């Protein structure tokens, strides 16, 4: 097959540029992306990363490469895979958002209920119960600590919900 002067020039430039970078690195460090072989119909180019084979021909003084049908199928399959992954991630995000909304609603209800709950502090008059006064004090302190922790937690959940809604609004 005869190559035009332009095609030969392009190949020489590619080889020259590739040769310069070869001096900078050892041959084993340079990953070869494409392998090209000359055929009767033009050049066959193999993409060593994807395995796609293309036929390159000289058209109007330019080297034009057309991927094989198998190569096009590889791209279409990857697009389909990414679309399915995108759909799955959107569904998971929707489920997380719904769970967060439910959790926030339950937290709000729990916070309202805890405000009207019984006062178990040590200042309230207490009858003699299961525990002595020292144990009642420890229990009261533990409940106060738990209540404060829950209020902080639900406050953080509210902030996350607000941030999430702001991000979705933008």
Description:
Residues 1-24 form the signal peptide. With 170 residues, the chain is an alpha+beta fold. It has 2 domains: 5-72, no CATH class; 99-169. Helices cover 61% and strands 14% of the residues. It contains 3 helices and 4 strands, in the order αββββαα. The chain has helices at residues 5-24, 69-115, 133-169; strands spanning 34-38, 43-47, 53-59, 62-67. The radius of gyration is 35 Å and the shape is rod-shaped. 1% of the residues are buried.
SSE class: alpha+beta
Instruction: Output the strand order for the largest sheet.
Output: 1-2-3-4
The biggest sheet, with number of strands, parallel, antiparallel or mixed sense and barrel status, is: 4 strands, antiparallel
Poorly predicted parts: none
First-residue to last-residue Cα separation: 58 Å
Can you give the mean pLDDT? 78
The sequence of SSEs as H and E is HEEEEHH
Let me know the number of strands: 4
What integer value in Å does the Rg equal?
Answer: 35 Å
Beta-strand residue fraction: 5-15%
| Number of DSSP helical runs | 3
Proportion of helical residues: 55-70%
Q: What characteristic shape results from the CA principal axes?
A: rod-shaped
Q: In total, how many domains does the architecture comprise?
A: 2
């Amino acid at each position: 097959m005869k190559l035009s002067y332009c095609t030969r020039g392009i190949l020489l430039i590619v080889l020259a540029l590739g040769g310069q970078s070869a001096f900078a690195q050892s041959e084993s460090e340079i990953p070869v992306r494409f392998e090209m072989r000359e055929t009767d119909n033009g050049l066959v180019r193999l993409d060593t990363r994807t395995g796609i084979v293309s036929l390159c021909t000289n058209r109007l003084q330019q080297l034009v490469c057309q991927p094989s049908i198998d190569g096009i199928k590889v791209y279409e399959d990857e697009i389909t895979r990414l679309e399915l992954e995108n759909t799955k991630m959107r569904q998971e995000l929707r489920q997380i958002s719904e769970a967060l909304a439910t959790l926030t609603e339950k937290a709000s209800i729990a916070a309202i209920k805890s405000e009207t709950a019984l006062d178990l502090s040590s200042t309230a008059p207490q009858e003699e119960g299961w525990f002595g006064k020292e144990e009642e004090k420890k229990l009261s302190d533990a409940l106060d600590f738990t209540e404060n922790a829950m209020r902080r937690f639900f406050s953080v959940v509210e902030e996350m919900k607000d941030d999430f809604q702001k991000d979705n609004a933008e």
